[in-house]
Design goal:
The protein is α+β, with helices and mostly antiparallel strands. The protein contains 6 helices and 5 strands. The protein has a 5-stranded antiparallel beta sheet with strand order 4-3-2-1-5, covered by helices on one side. A hairpin with a 4-residue loop joins strand 3 and strand 4. The radius of gyration is 26 Å and the shape is elongated. About 5% of the residues have low confidence.
Length: about 210
């Protein structure tokens, strides 16, 4: 830092620019690492692709790959955005401080604005958090038949905010993750459909 101090205010500008460049370089490295991790998770089941494990391949669900890809993409996008925002905030504040600006009032105002935004967007944040845990815990995924309230349908996609499913009539439902208090997954376990009213009335006649 002594070298930059000798250059005066121009040195401060150069130091701030180097901080921003270092932050950009760090974000690019993290992005590459996250993308590699996502690709490895998406590929999955590499062990079962070996010749002596081919007998296990028919046991795997055909939709597991889509579910794994979607989960990996969702988690990867969340990690990338979180890392980018964190690095950007730290780098910008450090660069501003390097220019000789007192960042204490800025931090105070940012905190107030953040509180206001959190109150205004608390539903969106809640949806995102619940969508993240739904994805991590694999409560349901693409191809599962789930029951949310009085809606029963096949899951088409699971996002951080919205779960999309299609019912037996072909209608597509968009359900906010924050509105899902209780969900039944008919594709997990041994679900048995209840007998219809017609079947109940026909049984006595058969006897």
């Amino acid at each position: 830092m002594q070298f930059f101090d000798q250059l005066g205010y121009g040195g401060n500008i150069l130091a701030a620019a180097l901080i921003l460049l270092a932050a950009l370089f760090l974000w690019l490295i993290l992005r590459v690492l996250i993308n590699r991790m996502v690709q490895r998770v998406q590929n999955g089941y590499e062990m079962f692709r070996k010749p002596h494990f081919r007998w296990a391949q028919p046991v795997l669900r055909t939709l597991d790959h889509k579910r794994r890809v979607q989960r990996a993409e969702t988690i990867g996008a969340l990690l990338t955005s979180t890392a980018g925002v964190t690095i950007a905030i730290i780098a910008i504040m450090t660069a501003i401080e390097q220019l000789g600006v007192n960042i204490a009032p800025i931090l105070a105002s940012v905190g107030i604005v953040g509180i206001a935004i959190s109150f205004g967007a608390r539903e969106v944040i809640r949806d995102a958090f619940l969508g993240f845990f739904i994805t991590i815990e694999d409560q349901y995924g693409i191809g599962d038949v789930i029951e949310v309230g009085d809606t029963v349908g096949v899951v088409q996609s699971v996002g951080l905010r919205i779960t999309r499913l299609v019912d037996e009539n072909g209608a597509i439902w968009y359900i906010r993750n924050g509105d899902i208090m209780k969900v039944g997954n008919r594709s997990q376990g041994n679900y048995i459909a209840p007998a219809s009213d017609n079947e109940k009335t026909e049984k006595p006649h058969e006897q």
